[in-house]
Specification:
The complex is a heterodimer.
Chain A (H helix, E strand, L loop, with lengths): L1 H11 L1 H35 L7 E5 L7 E2 L2 E2 L9 E2 L15 E14 L5 E7 L3 E5 L2 E6 L1 H4 L4 E4 L9 E5 H7 L6 E6 L2 E12 L8 E4 H7 L5 E2 L1 E6 L6 H8 L6 H8 L4 H11 L3 E5 L1 H42 L2 H9 L4 H39 L9 H26 L2 H6 L3
Parallel strand pairs in A: 6-13, 10-12
Antiparallel strand pairs in A: 1-15, 1-16, 2-3, 4-14, 5-6, 5-11, 5-15, 7-8, 9-12, 10-13, 11-12
Helix pairs in contact in A: 1-2, 1-11, 2-9, 2-11, 2-12, 9-12, 11-12
Chain B lengths: L10 H15 L1 H35 L7 E5 L8 E2 H9 L6 E14 L2 E8 L1 H7 L4 E4 L10 E5 H6 L7 E6 L4 E12 L7 E5 H8 L4 E2 L1 E6 L5 H12 L3 E5 L1 H42 L2 H9 L4 H38 L10 H25 L3 H6 L2
Parallel strand pairs in B: 4-9, 6-8
Antiparallel strand pairs in B: 1-11, 1-12, 2-10, 3-4, 3-11, 5-8, 6-9, 7-8
Helix pairs in contact in B: 1-10, 2-8, 2-10, 2-11, 8-11, 9-11, 10-11
Classes of the chains: A alpha+beta, B alpha+beta.
Amino acid sequence: MFFLMLRQSFVKGWRRKVLATATIVLAASLITALMNISIDVGDKMSKEMKSYGANINLVPKSENISLEIGGVDYNPLEGQVLIDETELPKIKEIFWANNIVGYAPFLKVNAEMLGTAKRVPLVGANFDKTVPVAGDEEFRIGVRVINPYWQVNGEWPADDGEGAILVGALLARERNLKTGDRITLRMAQLSETFTVKGILSTGGAEESSLVAPLAVVQRLAALEGKVQSVSVSALTVPEDKLSRKARRSSEALDSLEYDRWYCTAYVSAITHQIEEAIPNIAARPIWQVAASEGAVINKIQLLMVVVTIAAFIASGLGISSLMVTTIMERAKEIGLTKALGAADREVYLLFLSEAALVGVIGGLLGCLAGAGLSQVIGLSIFGSLISFNWVVIPVNVAISVLIALTGSLMPSRLITKLYPAEVLHGRR
Amino acid sequence: MADVKGGGMTRGRMFLLILFKSLKIRRNRVAITFFSIMIGASIITALSSVYFDISAKMSRELRAYGANFFIGQKASSESRATDAGVIRRAVAQVPADKLIGASPYIYGVVRLDLGNAVLAGVDFTGLKKLSPYWQVEGKWISVDFDDESCMIGKTLAKNMELKVGDSVNVIRNETGFQKSLVVKGIAETGQAEDEQIFVNLALAGEILGQQGKVNHAMLSIVTEGTDIDALAKRMEASFPELDAKPIRKVSHSDGRILDKIKGLMAIIAVIILTVTTLCVMTTLIAIVSERTREIGLMKAIGADDRDIVRQFLSETLTIGVAGVAAGMALGFLLAQVLGQAVFGSFISFRLMVLPVTLVPSIAASLIAAALPVRMAVRVVPAQVLKED
């Protein structure tokens, strides 16, 4: 009898049920899409934040204190310790290798520019180069990968090119240099002539220096295979209590905490692992990028969560009000069933199982639609797919059913309280 | 109904009577309609308020990245130091509510107990706001007349074997200055600051023999769009001897991130707007469709189709306007809750929110009422009335 009524309710009142299901599908798809995005937005924004440049700096361990002010070094370092370029691919062999977006080695020297008395800083850098690393046939390194804010007015020199150089914007203005000009640099015994390929603006110290391919600078300075510092761009998670504790001293952690810290992509864990992989270097987080990134991403995540909750409450109330109407209009039918001897319990059971059924169907369809919706958002905003989190499906179906049930509960109570005679007579 | 004259009942009065009775007798349904429109409108108001404010709010958050503007001496000029007063006047050109923090800098090389180091004179109150990312062990120097303390970079501290609370001798040979300062804090940034020692600007001027001089100033300014470039132009126009420019690394990235966040918020707001509107519509459709019998009755006693559609639309419109009004008020409150929860500040009210909320809410209610009524007026009255 119960199933008969349930079936009848769906067959006869199919319109009502379609409407209810449609509402739940809409609401569920909204919640699915928002939940998916909330979960993934941290990763996605963290990739976007890479436009602020590298967040880890590698320097030789026994480094002297530099006395550099505004690009002028007051302590030209003699016999300085340098990093071997061949060691660098080891960065891609650490536990969090996949989180290393790229790196760029630098070698900074002073060169004499023919025709002027003052020495100018000359920076050797990789621009966009592929290097072989373990498990990854080619890996792109260089400043164009990790510092997207470097802008060249002209063209970038090739990494293996000879005789091509970039001039920092400040230096170009000071010395009146243009693209196409030829300059001759001298270091110790060697001298070489370059053509200015472009004017570089970075907003940093590079603007008052010359930038040439790393190999060329290494040869000029007779420092083959050596680099002075390496900027590394890594995807990290925001700092929290554990990582702050680890930073104070990794001995303070017990073994469980240490494992958890080591296996989380904190910037401190990644620097620790790089130091393990390459001896004789110190890996330092660049806090301007590392700390701020965490703060901003936390904000965006919080924003998404709050918006999701708001949308969730709104769709919950929307579904409830729909449930109230679809049940209230069946007052007469319920009056009749009660007059024919149905107990209140049975009326409840009927309504609630109807609601649950509608909730499950609506929730599942909504998940499907929401998954599509989140991909549309991902593609249009971030240009990449949002990873679908499977936990969303059960959560969403459960939520849909729960909303449908709670939405039905109140009107069911109202309706079972009615006197059959009154309803059938048409007074209510 | 136009020809019902004997009863003294004009068409207009009849219309109002039905409207009034319908609202009064069907109180439950009215409440539900009102409620669902209100919820819909409030969520739309809240989200659009947040959306229109998101740029301002997030660009404030992005100031966690520190300085995005630089003021210094023109590169072509002879000396690297400039008058502190000029820089101070240039900084004053930035509107106070846009300026998060600013600090002048003066640099020089000094001798410490165990070696040479770069000394930087700064305004610590400004610097703290300018660089919230500094990881400080110990304390910041909090007052700008403190000439007994210094802050020191982490690498420098390690090399000079200094800890928080230790004292260090600062010697400048050229000026013959010598003083023992207490290390108040050790700072870590991962950049050049790690190898520098920081003191108050006035003390630095005394040590370096350059009182009243600064090398440059760094500013952290809340920006929207390209107004930072305009600011740079304006400042260079009024201070031709200064070089004012946005720091590309930060300002360029800020723009990109803001665009992404704005885009994300926009698309989410549109989706929520659509879904909420559709939800409100389905509820209204359900409410109106159950009145098919009533429509049949009205037709049977002589109302024409147009009258009925008009009747239902004005009924929905009445409830709709009330619902949207209440929803907007509620939504604005909700926006404040969102603003406080996420940004810790209030969301400002913008007029753009009104049309964005009003148009879809009212349109959705009217369409939702019109659809089922149009279907219902097509039925034959007898059939509907019989089908009990």
